[in-house]
Amino acid sequence: MFINLKYYVITIAAIFMALGIGIYIGFMLDGQDIFVQQQDSLINELEKKFNQFSNENNNLKNQIKDLNAQLKLNDSFINAVYPRLIEGKLKDLNIAIIETNDDYLYTGIKSTIKSAGGNVVSEIRIYPYILINDDVKKQEIINYAAIKGENISQDKVVQYVVEKINQALTKKVDIDVLNFLKSEGVIDFSGYFNVQPDYVIICGGSLQKTNYPELIDIPLIKLLKQQNVPIIGIERSDVTFSYIDYYKKLRLSTVDDIDLIYGKTALVFAIKNEPGNYGIKKSATSGLLPDINNSK
Predict the structure, then answer these.
(1) SS3 per residue for 12-59
(2) 67 vs 70, 71, 287, CA distance in Å?
(3) Are residues 46 and 113 both part of a single domain?
(4) What does the pLDDT average to over 108-119?
(5) Using alpha carbons only, what angle is made at residue 29 by residues 26 and 33, rounded to the nearest 5 degrees?
(6) Does any domain span residue 285?
(7) Quick check: is 293 in a domain?
(8) Is residue 137 included in any domain, yes or no?
(9) Mean pLDDT value of segment 2-31
(10) Does a structural domain hold residue 295?
């Protein structure tokens, strides 16, 4: 019987196609099983990791809770002993406070000094933005200085104000000059200047980096040091731009966390007889507190 070659070729091709489809389907089924197994394994591993992270998170939360409780106890203890710790340490010392920037408030320092037995004889606040940038105010100061027989230029106005502050603290005060500068809004002050301070506290720090320390703080500190007035530089723990390094370069004792009870304590002991650089920042090379055990 004659076999049609075309039919034979088609039959063979169909057989091989069927075999190929069968192999493909078998491979796909096996591959699907492997995929499902891998997926199950991955899910199990993720569940283990999740449980592990969950346990670690709970442990950390418990540790934080314990640390907060301990911190609360520490703060309670420090607040209880703080008044007795600083009591009488600054007895009969006359202290002046100068705030060289108005970005931050330092209202608690006066209370600290008084609690330690000291006297805040004068307080001066400088408004550097107005003093440095207001040309109208500068001209008014130039005109006033001319009436007083002093000739100054625009670029010497800041120096003029700094010198008048130094004179008020260390020499005979010209209260008329201070009142004029106050009326112009470049400074504010309170207290009395007929007693020279035994110590001056410079309060710095600002919300942004400026050239104010170079124009105000550094010249003022140098003038005060020429009169042999002891000075300490301080700032809050939360200032954006720190002045402490400027003060350290002038060899001042410093406290960088005056808003905290640790900083208040360090201030009192540093003024008393424990000079150093105290606080919680990198600039605090003397540690958190002076050696209060050895302080008399």
Answers:
(1) HHHHHHHHHHHHHHHHHHHHHHHHHHHHHHHHHHHHHHHHHHHHHHHH
(2) 5, 6, 21
(3) no
(4) 95
(5) 140
(6) no
(7) no
(8) yes
(9) 62
(10) no
